[in-house]
């Protein structure tokens, strides 16, 4: 009995000693964006164009003290997925190099900015004719939802009798942010029916290498890249791209050269005026020209991020079967380049399959598109519909 009592006392003393040691042991304290936290924190971040998951760390300032000493310079962040950001919550994990006590920061990416809505506000139509959104001349922009035009709506206009009729046009992005504009419709017995209007998404951040251009998404008038750089190709043709795209292209070209692959660039950056002349020339002889040539301000060539390529001086429908096409399919995405108008996706892109038309979107997005077999239209549609939760 005495041995049991002594043993029990020893266990109790040991437990007490351990507890006292833990109380006296050095502890880690964190601060996140100036606020003291224990082992977790939450931060809200406004979405920015071309934002990748690793970029979220730029919005989180973490400091740490250990035993009263500032040890912020020893903080490390665990690796995160190399992916483009969508709206939702991401976890960033931090810890000290010599300590396993982690800090988890929940970063919620949100969009609180209303769409931009610019439009004509006065219209005329004939009595009895339907006047709806298809008659409006509208330009919109949203910092996240590139398909915001799909939500365009307006109050009904009564055209059964003549007179000035008022309506309100509304547009709502995928986060529920709304913009509206009041319009007036002059309904007259002697007027013609209102003509079809035009609705465009006008890109306001053309420096975004991931932006989408197509028949409904266009560049603002007058914009041109200011960092055009000459690129390498087998024909020394002197073509130009924006610097980031040019650097990535030259890296790709050097890799192809090492494997004996010939790459000629047939077309790259185009001015708005050049694109207009090209498009109007095609249209003059072919009413279906819009299926393979872009209206000015909707052409990716005007971005300075696109190269049409060949193994000679011509564009080839069967490029994908050539040595060049096979090499590009296997390697182009690794350098940030994608076939912008893939086979079988004409209904989505609006253009015929163009195996020669390569677009620079950056390595991160190119890898995602390659892995998931998506064109840009599909990527942005999925991004709008889904959130990262």
Q: Could you explain how this protein is built, in words?
A:
- Pfam families: VanY (PF02557).
- GO terms for molecular function: peptidase activity.
- Keywords: Signal.
- Residues 239-362 form the D-alanyl-D-alanine carboxypeptidase-like core domain.
- This is M15 family metallopeptidase.
- It is a single chain.
- The protein is α+β, with helices and mostly antiparallel strands and 389 residues long.
- The protein folds into three domains: 25-110, Immunoglobulin-like (Sandwich), CATH 2.60.40; 116-202, Immunoglobulins (Immunoglobulin-like, Sandwich); 205-385, Muramoyl-pentapeptide Carboxypeptidase, domain 2, CATH 3.30.1380.10.
- The protein is built from seven helices and 22 strands.
- It has helices at residues 2-24, 243-258, 272-285, 323-331, 346-349, 363-372, 376-385; strands at residues 28-32, 35-37, 40-46, 62-66, 69-70, 75-77, 88-96, 103-110, 116-119, 122-126, 138-141, 153-154, 163-172, 178-188, 199-203, 217-219, 228-230, 240-242, 264-267, 306-310, 337-339, 357-360.
- The protein has a four-stranded antiparallel sheet, with no helix packed on it. A four-stranded mixed sheet has the order 3-8-7-6, with no helix packed on it.
- A hairpin with a 6-residue loop joins strand 7 (88-96) and strand 8 (103-110).
- The longest helix has 23 residues, at 2-24.
- The protein is flat.
- The model is unreliable at 1-25 (pLDDT under 50).
């Amino acid at each position: 009995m005495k041995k049991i009592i002594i043993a029990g006392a020893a266990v109790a003393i040991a437990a007490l000693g351990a507890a006292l040691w833990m109380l006296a042991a050095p502890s880690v304290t964190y601060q996140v964006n100036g606020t003291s936290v224990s082992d977790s924190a939450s931060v809200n971040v406004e979405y920015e164009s071309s934002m990748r998951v690793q970029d979220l760390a730029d919005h989180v300032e973490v400091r740490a003290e250990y035993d009263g000493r500032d040890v912020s310079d020893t903080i490390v962040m665990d690796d995160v997925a190399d992916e483009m950001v969508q709206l939702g919550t991401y976890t960033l994990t931090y810890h000290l190099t010599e300590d396993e006590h982690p800090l988890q920061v929940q970063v919620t990416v949100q969009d609180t900015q209303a769409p931009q809505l610019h439009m004509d506000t006065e219209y005329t139509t004939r009595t009895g004719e339907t006047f709806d959104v298809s008659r409006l001349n509208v330009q919109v922009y949203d910092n996240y939802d590139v398909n915001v035009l799909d939500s365009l709506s307006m109050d009904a206009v009564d055209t059964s009798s003549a007179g000035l009729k008022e309506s309100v046009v509304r547009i709502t992005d995928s986060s529920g942010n709304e913009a509206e504009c009041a319009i007036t419709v002059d309904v007259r017995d002697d007027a013609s029916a209102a003509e079809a209007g035009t609705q465009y998404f006008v890109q306001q951040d053309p420096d975004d290498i991931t932006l989408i251009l197509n028949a409904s998404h266009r560049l603002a008038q007058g914009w041109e890249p200011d960092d055009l750089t000459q690129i390498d190709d087998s024909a020394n043709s002197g073509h130009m791209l924006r610097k980031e795209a040019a650097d990535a292209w030259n890296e790709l070209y050097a890799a192809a050269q090492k494997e004996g692959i010939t790459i000629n660039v047939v077309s790259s950056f185009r001015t708005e005026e050049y694109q207009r002349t090209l498009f109007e020339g095609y249209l003059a002889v072919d009413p279906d020209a819009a299926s393979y040539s872009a209206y000015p301000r909707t052409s990716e060539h005007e971005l300075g991020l696109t190269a049409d390529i060949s193994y000679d001086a011509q564009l080839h429908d069967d490029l994908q079967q050539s040595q060049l096409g096979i090499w590009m399919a296997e390697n182009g995405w690794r350098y940030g380049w994608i076939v912008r108008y893939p086979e079988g996706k004409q209904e989505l892109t609006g253009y015929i399959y163009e195996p020669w038309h390569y677009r620079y979107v950056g390595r991160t997005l190119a890898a995602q598109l390659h892995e998931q077999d998506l064109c840009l239209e599909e990527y942005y549609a999925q991004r709008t519909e889904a959130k990262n939760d």
